[in-house]
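tmp note - Dienelactone hydrolase family protein
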Amino acid sequence: MAKTVTINAHDGGSFSAYVAGDQNVSKGGPGILVIQEIFGINEVMRDICDDLAAQGYVALCPDLFWRQEPGVDITDKTKEHWDKAFALFGGFNVDLGIADLKSSLSALRQLTGGKVGTVGYCLGGKLAFLMAARSDVDAAVSYYGVGLADHTGEVANIKKPLLMHVATEDKFVPKDQQAKVKAAVAGNSNVTLHEYQGNDHAFARVGGEHYDQAAAYAANTRTANFFKSHLS
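out:
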């Protein structure tokens, strides 16, 4: 059961979110806040939500580009879409994005009444990392987050479990940045980091250029077990 809901922003205005899962069945059960890549709430994100719903979660994916252009739904298949995605990424305000995610987290808690985790990919991977540091989310998963080297000072604020999936050959995250992040999280027992040797960015994006079935299966299995452990 999937639908669209409206979420009120902290500073006025509102934005939409895709929701999958039966809230009636799951009342008091767990929810997962799904954080988009740079392509908006597209089929890939909706499929992730639907898959989480099939696992018994209520999954909510908010439209984080609404302040620039509501309803973005593009792919990674054309140069035109990539250009638009990078333009939206360039104009994205991280702090406002976190504020919108906190509003979304609150809305999801009201829908479910249970524990709530978050999972994000690419831009969403960065935001999932920051939600672990800046919000009361119960557990967080970051897939190949970008720009994390600029936020290592926030690692000490991570008080709940965070699972990180890092592609060693990520074209958007240089090796020195990977090393900086790895060293920073090593001292926080709440953080578990897995490296996927030889894999590039977005190795878990089904249908993507760098999709790797084995690596995606490993990461997704770890994610499933992680959420089962921390959101039950």
